[in-house]
Automatic annotation (TrEMBL):
Keywords: Acyltransferase, Transferase. GO terms for biological process: fatty acid biosynthetic process. It comes from the Eukaryota. It is an enzyme of class 2 (transferase). This is 3-ketoacyl-CoA synthase. Pathway: Lipid metabolism; fatty acid biosynthesis. GO terms for cellular component: membrane. The active site is at 165, 244, 341, 345, 374, 378. It comes from Senna tora. Residues 24-309 form the FAE domain. GO terms for molecular function: fatty acid elongase activity. Belongs to the thiolase-like superfamily. Chalcone/stilbene synthases family. The lineage of its organism: Eukaryota, Viridiplantae, Streptophyta, Embryophyta, Tracheophyta. Its EC number is 2.3.1.-.
Length: 470
């Protein structure tokens, strides 16, 4: 028999009471985060970079000129950091201890500071996700963290490798997935990269580029779906979209770890990388746009599309791709109607400028990514969080505003997510001691002034290197 009106009145409130708590538990909040800043004795000054380069016996004059051009055009300054074994002259002969020590230094510094500031005990952590792409130890790096901080026996652990520069948003997606099915949890997400064992000592130019771009760094984050901690949170995750083009051979092979012809291990960045990045970026934007833009902007775009008889909203991109071009053209959508801040992966100067052109961003919008690249370099998966730290240090983030994070990584992948700022954020972070210096008047790289003489040298065998390079 059917329920009476009176019974329905009693049933519906009961159903809503059951649904509401479940929906609340599906939220993902960022409680706090801590970016890693190595000690000053690990800074890569201009002269020291030159010494590292000249220590490679496999490089000739043309190779030196190529490296100089790559560094000068990279957008990276001379305040970035390298692993300790580089300063001991062992970048080409790394040991297992070097890689483990590099990770331990980061774990001890950043995780300790984060837990202390957030007043969270290691025993409160329910989920641990660690991503370090190019180093896998046994026991795992996540086990090292559990051992150091004496975490609970029933902690849920995920140790990710091989995910590339876009790994932090992949890890975030893992945490978010857990939060959707399990209530009242606190997760620790640790993202970094191991450079100690991954210096390339050959002369393949597609693999030499990685030496010029990547620098030491890392970030530890505390996330939760506890409603009782909502008032303490910094950000709330609104949506996250992952795009993976690994099924396409060209995309898969454009950014890959491999050996050169002489058997030297390195990280290859191919000429098809811009094309692969464009395709993944276009697809990612197509999916995330309806999730983050207001209806009026989507309607405006639809009307414009119909008026111009455009079959698909990414036709301009597709035309560029099909013609063999790797550049990114301007999107017909105005992303600023749904986003106040843009947190872009610091993959390099060209990456930042390409995404900025596509989304029609201003210099103000690109400033956090540009300054992060200049100060800290490309710290792989943790880069986004240094960019966020810049925004925080500049007191840009106000309650209710939205932040779009975009990252790229080997595979090839493009991942993005949208955050909502839960409160005005003005805390101290890794930028505290230098934020007053940014943005500087000029971002000119000092390498050109120091090593520009290389362009005038025709035969390095008959030329004496300066004393500071010996």
């Amino acid at each position: 028999m059917g329920a009476t009106n009176g019974e329905r009145c009693r049933i519906f409130p009961t159903m809503l009471q059951g649904i509401a708590p479940h929906w609340k538990n599906q939220q993902c909040y960022l409680l706090d985060y801590e970016c890693y800043k190595p000690s000053d004795d690990r800074k890569l000054g201009t002269e020291f970079c030159g010494k590292i380069i000249t220590r490679n016996p496999n490089l000739g004059l043309d190779d030196y000129k190529f490296v100089l051009k790559a560094i000068v055009s990279s957008g990276i300054g001379e305040q970035t950091y390298a692993p300790s074994n580089f300063f001991l002259g062992r970048e080409a002969q790394p040991t297992l201890s070097d890689a483990i020590s590099e990770m331990d230094d980061f774990f001890h510094d950043s995780i300790s500071k984060l837990l202390s500031r957030a007043a969270v005990s290691p025993s409160d952590i329910d989920v641990l996700v660690v991503n370090v792409s190019m180093f896998a130890a046994v026991p795992s790096l996540s086990s090292r963290i559990i051992n150091r901080y004496k975490m609970r026996e029933d902690i849920k652990v995920y140790n990710l490798t091989g995910m590339g520069c876009s790994a932090s948003l992949i890890s975030l997606d893992v945490v978010n997935g857990i939060f959707r099915s399990q209530a009242n949890k606190i997760a620790l997400l640790v993202t970094s990269e191991s450079l100690s064992p991954n210096w390339y000592s050959g002369n393949d130019r597609s693999m030499m580029l990685a030496n010029c771009l990547f620098r030491s760094g890392g970030c530890a984050m505390l996330l939760t779906n506890k409603q009782s901690l909502k008032h303490r949170s910094m950000l709330k995750l609104k949506c996250l979209v992952r795009t993976h083009h690994g099924a396409k051979d060209e995309a898969f092979g454009c950014c890959i770890q491999k050996e050169d012809e002489e058997g030297r291990l390195g990280f290859h960045l191919g000429k098809t990388l811009p094309k692969a990045a464009t395709r993944a970026f276009v697809e990612n934007l197509r999916v995330i746009s309806p999730k983050i833009l207001p209806v009026r902007e989507l309607v405006r775009f639809m009307v414009l599309t119909l008026a111009k008889k455009i079959k698909i909203n990414t036709s301009n991109y597709k035309a560029s791709i099909s013609s063999g071009g790797g550049g990114i053209t301007k999107s017909p959508l105005n992303f600023k109607t749904g986003v106040e801040h843009f947190c872009l992966h610091t993959g390099g100067k060209a990456v930042i400028e390409g995404v900025g052109k596509s989304l029609d961003l201003s210099e103000y919008d690109l400033e956090p990514a540009r300054m992060t690249l200049h100060r800290f370099g490309n710290t792989s998966a943790s880069s986004l969080w240094y960019v966020l730290g810049y925004m925080e240090a500049k007191k840009r983030l106000k309650k209710g505003e939205r932040i779009l994070m975009i990252s790229f990584g080997a595979g090839f992948k493009c991942n993005s997510c949208l955050w909502e700022v839960m409160r005005d954020i003005e805390g101290k972070n890794v930028w505290e001691d230098c934020i007053h210096e940014y943005p500087p008047q000029c971002l000119a790289n000092p390498f050109l002034e120091k090593y520009g003489w290389l362009h005038k040298v025709e035969d390095l065998t008959n030329f004496q290197l300066p004393d500071y390079l010996h």
